[in-house]
Each structure stands twice: as structure tokens, then as C-alpha cells.
Amino acid sequence: MKQEFTRIAVKVGSNVLTRRDGTLDVTRMSALVDQIAELHKSGVEIILISSGAVASGRSEVHPQKKLDSVDQRQLFSAVGQAKLINRYYELFREHSIPVGQVLTTKESFGTRRHYLNQKNCMTVMLENNVIPIVNENDTISVSELMFTDNDELSGLIASMMDAQALIILSNIDGIYNGSPADPGSSVIREIDHGKDLSNYIQATKSSFGRGGMLTKTNIARKVADEGITVIIANGKRDNILVDLLQHPKETLCTRFVPSNEPVSSVKKWIAHSEGFAKGEIHINECATEVLNSEKAVSILPIGITHVEGEFEKDDIVRIMDFQGNQVGVGKVNCDSKQAQEAIGKHGKKPVVHYDYLYIE
Ligand SMILES: Nc1ncnc2c1ncn2[C@@H]1O[C@H](COP(=O)(O)OP(=O)(O)O)[C@@H](O)[C@H]1O
Ligand SMILES: N[C@@H](CCC(=O)OP(=O)(O)O)C(=O)O
């Protein structure tokens, strides 16, 4: 059967993989592995981003004394990740599919070089028919060095690997147009660009999840803007992955319509690099206007009102409009001192070139 996608990233949330008591749901894992194996055999390249390390480690160790949240996460994930990958290894082996483990950190996306190293690693895995299984390296990612959650990580991976679709599997059928607990609300089937969803999303999240629906929605929108279809669906439903690909119209989920404007690889990296921003470039009203137009424009010194923070050439900065709202992210062409000196001057080189500018 002809499929819409030939390369997909699949993110499986903690809740899909754990039972109510926090133990690893091996039956569910096995069902998902069977589906991934079926798609893999039909020619779809798959990158799996799997949560579940902390949840699966929790039932294995029983600390003598009370641990703080960081210690708990480090201890449980160290034990749980080994258990998780071991399970995947055994389950995929039944289908004669080799898998490889990729543990990453937010910092590993900070420089273009690290980014490309990771991309190369996963590309070579796919070329050799190995399914990459990605998770955050929770043992060394602490507080500000952490991803918001694995939804954020999955967005980065889908974008970096030029996936055609990102499928986020959670314990819910999609984004509801009200409280999911309210019988009157239903799943929004399709979300177009620019639709404001903030009224629908509740702050609640499932018992083992980290970010909740809000991060899922923000990530989904960003990734869809880069031309990648994003699907949020229920990983606990039988055959969900195969159904999503083979019977997309009949399968319940929320689908973010992708933008059809191509985004370059560098811009995709910049789009997800906001967390590494070293400073801010504030622009005036006129520059804000042109930036929001359809034109391809760079940030020139003439449109800059002030510069905040200290940065080096090639660092990531936030672009702020005349009202102080963030409108984009870019890679600077000079350091903060040179940018400062050039403010308001005509005929100078761009501080952020269009090729390295991502407007949100
Ligand atoms: N409008 C909404 N539609 C669907 N789910 C929502 C909505 N608002 C809040 N949620 C909550 O988001 C949860 C899913 O996010 P999360 O707990 O992070 O899951 P995961 O562990 O799969 O990443 C749902 O179980 C639900 O409780
Ligand atoms: N890296 C963590 C994932 C935590 C997380 O983001 O969970 P989720 O919100 O379920 O995707 C783990 O493996 O336990």
C-alpha cells in the first residue's frame, strides 16, 4: 500500500509506556514495536523518541532515605533507561530489526557542529536499517540544562532529520476543544496555521508526563511551520501507528497542517535554538513591519534600537520588536560590541543575515 510518508519521527510519552502503578507496560511496548516493525518493513524510515526511563526505573530501586527530585530523576533514569532499551532491543530482535540508543542533551543542539554530528549519527543508522531510539540523557540533564520534555526533543529530532511527519503518541486521542473530561468536548481533527489554541489547553497533565498538552501544542506548531506534518494521537489505541499512516482519514487524531514553504536546514536549527540565546536585538517599528511582510529581509543596523547581553559572532540571539515582544531568533554576524557601535548607521553589513534568521 502506498504511504503518505517515508520518513517519520514517533514520540512515545511516559504515560503510554507505563501502567497506573508506574511499572513498565511491556504489552503496550510490544504492540507498538510490532507496528513500528510493520511500517519499517513496508519501507518507512522511523526514528523513535521514547520516554519512560524515569518511570521504568522507579519500580526497580527503593531508596533508603528520601531523595530530592534531582537525585530521584538521576537514579531512576540511570536504572530505567538500561531496562527500557533492553526491552526494546529484545522486542525488535523478534522482528530481526537492529536498534541503536541515542542519548542526548539540550546542550548537544547548541552548536551547529554538535547538531550535525548527531544528524550524521542518525542518518548512518537509518542507512543501515537500524532504528534509532532517542531519549534525553536524564542522568546529566539537570534543571536549566533540561529539555522542557521529550515533546521538545522530538520536535528537534523531526526537524533535524527532515522527517515528513512527527507523530506524538500520548494517552489522549488528540487536542480537545475543551476539557478532555467534559463529555461535550471533542477532538479537533485539523489545525491550520495561526489558530489560537490557548483557550482549550488545560494546565493538567497526565501522572507521569512532564510538559503537558501546552508544550505539545507549541512544539507541534513550530514543527508544522517548518513543513512537517504533526499528529497527536493516542498511543494506547490498538494499531494506532499503522492506522494513522494507512487510514489517515478514518483515524482519530489531531493533525497540524504543515506549511508548504520550504525552510532551510540552518533555519530549522535556528528555530529550535532559542534556549541558547546569548542576547537580544531590539528593532524599530519600521524594521518590525518589513520583517512581518512577505519580503526576505535581514536585520540591518539602521533598524536596530538597542542591543542587550554580550554575545560573540555566530551566537544565537532573540529578535525583539519595538514593543518588546520576541518575533524571531537568529545567528549574529558580529559580536555585541560591533553591533552596538553600528546601531542606526546606514550602509553597514547585516547584524543578522536573512539566511540565519527565523521569524516566528
Ligand atoms: N485541550 C486538551 N486536549 C487534550 N489533552 C489536554 C488538553 N488540555 C490538557 N490536556 C492534558 O494533557 C495530557 C497529555 O500531556 P502529557 O501529560 O505531557 O502526556 P505525555 O506523557 O504523553 O507527554 C492529557 O492527558 C490531558 O490531561
Ligand atoms: N526522559 C524522560 C522523559 C520525561 C518526559 O518528557 O516525559 P513525557 O512528558 O511523557 O514525554 C524519561 O525517559 O523518563
Automatic annotation (TrEMBL):
It is found in: Cytoplasm. Pathway: Amino-acid biosynthesis; L-proline biosynthesis; L-glutamate 5-semialdehyde from L-glutamate: step 1/2. InterPro entries: AceGlu_kinase-like_sf, Asp/Glu/Uridylate_kinase, G5K_ProB, Glu/AcGlu_kinase, Glu_5kinase, Glu_5kinase/COase_Synthase, Glutamate_5-kinase_CS, PUA. Its EC number is 2.7.2.11. PROSITE patterns: GLUTAMATE_5_KINASE, PUA. Its main location: cytoplasm. It is an enzyme of class 2 (transferase). One of its GO terms (cellular component) is cytosol. Residues 279-352 form the PUA domain. The keyword Cytoplasm applies. One of its GO terms (biological process) is L-proline biosynthetic process. It catalyses: L-glutamate + ATP = L-glutamyl 5-phosphate + ADP. Coiled coil: none annotated. Substrate binds at residues 51, 138, 150. GO terms for molecular function: ATP binding; glutamate 5-kinase activity; RNA binding. Keywords: Amino-acid biosynthesis, ATP-binding, Cytoplasm, Kinase, Nucleotide-binding, Proline biosynthesis, Transferase. SUPFAM superfamilies: Carbamate kinase-like, PUA domain-like. ATP binds at residue 11. Pfam families: AA_kinase (PF00696), PUA (PF01472). NCBIfam families: proB. Catalyzes the transfer of a phosphate group to glutamate to form L-glutamate 5-phosphate. Belongs to the glutamate 5-kinase family. This is Glutamate 5-kinase. It comes from Bacteroides xylanisolvens. The gene is proB.
